[in-house]
Amino acid sequence: xxxxxxxxxxxxxxxxxxxxxxxxxxxxxxxxxxxxxxxxxxxxxxxx
Length: 48
Hints:
The chain is mostly helical.
């Protein structure tokens, strides 16, 4: 039983982190179009 706790709890923690990151990423994708007009393009200085 103790072995299952040492294996299971960290795995549940990592699973929670991944699910939270995916949820935040989806929320960010919904919010990004609002700020598209505020983003300016960066001009690359190509030095040849």
